[in-house]
Amino acid sequence: MEVSEVDDVDLAPPAWRLLRVEQNAEKGLAIADRGFVPASGEIKVTGTGTELLNDEEVGRLYLGG
């Protein structure tokens, strides 16, 4: 499977677990149930993908907003 095809995969079954390291944080968080923001070797912020996308500090510091 090509990397570009990953977005087309249905990962709905609850038994699935996937760790996705994504350069496009906005795209990754848009489909994430849970997100983690690492910095300096520590998890600085965690939350649902939606929470992280809507967090002003996360946007300013990590998403270039």
Could you describe the 3D structure shown?
This protein has 65 residues and is an alpha+beta fold. The chain has a two-stranded antiparallel ribbon. The protein has one domain. The protein has helices at residues 25-31, 49-54, 56-62, and strands spanning 35-39, 42-47. It is built from three helices and two strands. The N and C termini lie far apart (32 Å).
Which structural traits does this protein have?
65 residues, alpha+beta
TL;DR?
This protein is an alpha+beta fold and 65 residues long. The chain contains three helices and two strands, in the order H-E-E-H-H.
Strand content: 15-25%
Range of helix content: 25-40%
Distance between the termini: 32 Å
- Count of separate DSSP helical elements: 3
Taking pLDDT < 50 over at least 5 consecutive residues as the criterion, the unreliable ranges are 1-6
Oligomeric status: single chain
Please count the beta strands (DSSP E, at least 2 residues each).
2
Shape: globular
SSE string = HEEHH
Largest sheet: 2 strands, antiparallel
Helix/strand structural class: alpha+beta
